[in-house]
Amino acid sequence: MKRLFRAVYGESVLHLLVLLASFALCGYAITRLLEGDWWGVVKWVVGAALIHDLVLLPLYGGTDWLLHKAVRGRRPGSQPRIAVVNHVRVPAFLSLLLLLVYWPLISQDAGTQYRNATLLSPRVFFGRWLLISAVLFALSGLLLAFRSRRAAGGNSR
Is-contact 139 87, C-beta < 8 A? Predict the structure, then answer.
């Protein structure tokens, strides 16, 4: 019976049960989310999809293309292009993710509710975000230098 089920479904019974439970949990979460201001949720999801597809995707796609063009112009025999691009992509992604998540605090638009709840000023977040971004890029640059030095040392033997 187990073999027949696996042959028809492709996975075990446990896989199907976990999948059904996750669908039930997602359905419950969606009903709770749409219970209050469902129109606001729909506007937010549609707006976020449109902003991503029409603004952000061309922006970071174009930036990545420019980065590839800039690295391609390097002298022959230097660090491989993909490694350099990836060592710029990762800290840029993490920095922009932090900017997106903490935008109200970084832009100092958190309002009085944040100050009243924490007794802290949101003024420090912009400087901290810049510092974290600089550290991410510096660590990525150091890692790239370490890897390229190690690769050059390995090739000369």
Answer: no
